[in-house]
Each structure stands twice: as C-alpha cells, then as structure tokens.
Amino acid sequence: MVKASELQKYLGNQIKRYRKSANLSQEQLAEIIGIATNSLSSIETGNSFMTSSTMEKLINTLNISPKELFDFPEINIEDINMAEDIRENLKIIEKDKEKLTILYNFVRLLK
Q1: Cβ pair 46, 9 in contact under 8 A
Q2: Distances from the Cα of 84 to the Cαs of 5, 108, 111, in angstroms?
Q3: What is the CATH number of domain 4-109?
Q4: For the chain (length 111 residues), average pLDDT per consecutive 10?
Q5: How far apart are alpha carbons 90 and 25 in whole angstroms?
Q6: Measuring CA to CA, how many Å separate 73 from each of 14, 17, 28, 34, 65?
C-alpha cells in the first residue's frame, strides 16, 4: 500500500521532472501559479501536499494531464491490488476534508 507520505514524494518528483522539462526554475513556476517558492520546494520534496487548486494550476501550466502527473514509474502496479489499495486509502482520507476534496477534484478531472 502506498502511504500518503510516499504519494507526496512521488508527486513531488513528478512535478520537479515536468518543471525541469519545461525549463522553469522553482521561482518561475511558483510565480506563474501564485504560490511562494518555498511552498513549491516543499511540494517537490514531498514535505507538504498541495491544494486541489494548486494541482490544477500545475497541470495547466506544465501542460500535462492528471494521468501524467499520477503515472509514477517508481511503482510497479502489477504488484498492487489497485481496487483494494484505493479502498484502504479512502478509509484513511475520508476523515480529512482537505485530502478528500483534493481526491474528489482529481476524480472529476478523469471524466
């Protein structure tokens, strides 16, 4: 099962990779999406999670899809019972309004 802290690190790595592919510094990307540079740094290192609004801005600015953002090459999905993992993680986050809102907004983007 992927833990929330691991997810933050995977997302951070993806954001950093796509930011560098776009030839943007942390300062430039932070300014474009309207957050502090240290906030972006914290997101990229996996030390904090982003809001759904920030995630949407990152996806649009980096010109990527939500699928690309969440396609982690580090995770071998063949070894994961995805449906069970989703159910277990949902039990954990359903008590956290902020994380539940992020997940809800992300799922809406998949339609």
Answers
A1: yes
A2: 19, 21, 21
A3: 1.10.260.40
A4: 70 94 97 97 92 92 91 68 77 84 80 65
A5: 34
A6: 9, 12, 26, 28, 16
